[in-house]
């Protein structure tokens, strides 16, 4: 039975930790992702979103290399990365599914200028640095740096998404049978002034939270968030973390997860499931087809269900 799925591809899954951030490496990763997406697309209606944390951070570094040119602001860099990654995904999908229709849409996402996130940056962007390099960049550029995995990364503000500006256009394309690649990097963060005009702001919207807003607006049957880890882990800070197989929203909300990485995914899953009564899932990008079938990853459901775990 065909389902309408919103599939969110993690920026770290498209450019893996420790990999050189070149275009060819990203293209190879996207080619692998496209194999999975094409298989899902054969039997389902897809809308695809993607992260841009590593990519937008790299663009910011490149922009600062031109000493006589003012660096582009984060909202403009977000638009650049959205177009770049969307182009690569679109091209890879069309080569696998000739005759189908794909469109990449630059997407603005409205946020609140008074969102407290602007005073408490948590969203990692850019490459992973060793500690000495991270401390030097923090001093030289005024960046906020936090631990991330085995290294350190820059973090920026990540305000909550309120509305997707291009939603009517996305709906029109989806209703016409087009696979839309949109809300890349969580969308371009914008605020409205007193006259109603839109203006970009220096932030990166979390793509999973934006994807949850999109999935609800499209009346999707499920939200799949595909990243570089195989599941959501309970007791993730302990020596024996446990991979969750299936869990209800109340039980999941009672657990604590890392801010800026897994926590936004869990929150997005809970919000979508609570609002729609349907299901969401989190897991590794390469397992996307199995995750959709319930054979991998973590599935979040609306029932008051205790956690069950994968063995091993």
* Count of distinct strands: 17
Average predicted local confidence, pLDDT: 91
Shape: globular
How far apart are the termini?
Answer: 31 Å
The class by helix and strand makeup works out as alpha/beta
CATH architecture designation of the domain at 4-113 and 161-220: 3-Layer(aba) Sandwich
Q: What would CATH call the homologous superfamily of the domain at 4-113 and 161-220?
A: Acetylglutamate kinase-like
Number of helices: 10
- How many strands, which pairing sense, and closed or not: the largest β-sheet? 10 strands, mixed
User: What percent of residues are in strands?
Assistant: 15-25%
Reading the helices and strands in chain order gives EHHEHHEEEHEEEHEEEHEEEHHEHEE
CATH topology group of the domain at 4-113 and 161-220: Carbamate kinase
Question: Rg, please?
Answer: 19 Å
- The proportion of residues forming helix, as a percent range, comes to 25-40%
Q: For this structure, what is the CATH class of the domain at 4-113 and 161-220?
A: Alpha Beta
Which parts are unreliable, with pLDDT below 50 for 5 consecutive residues or more?
Answer: none
Structural notes for this entry:
About 45% of the residues are buried. Helix 2 (about 25-45) crosses helix 4 (about 75-95) and helix 3 crosses helix 4. The strands form 3 sheets. Strands 1, 2, 3, 9, 12, 13, 14, 15, 16 and 17 form a 10-stranded mixed sheet that branches. The protein has helices spanning about 10-15, 25-45, 55-65, 75-95, 130-140, 165-175, 205-215, 250-255, 260-275, 290; strands at about 5-10, 45-50, 100-105, 110, 125-130, 145-150, 150-155, 165, 180, 190, 200, 220-225, 235, 240-250, 280-285, 300, 310. It has a domain at about 5-115 and about 160-220: Acetylglutamate kinase-like (Carbamate kinase, 3-Layer(aba) Sandwich), CATH 3.40.1160. A hairpin with a 7-residue loop joins strand 13 (about 235) and strand 14 (about 240-250). The protein has about 300 residues and is α/β, with parallel strands linked by helices. It contains 10 helices and 17 strands.
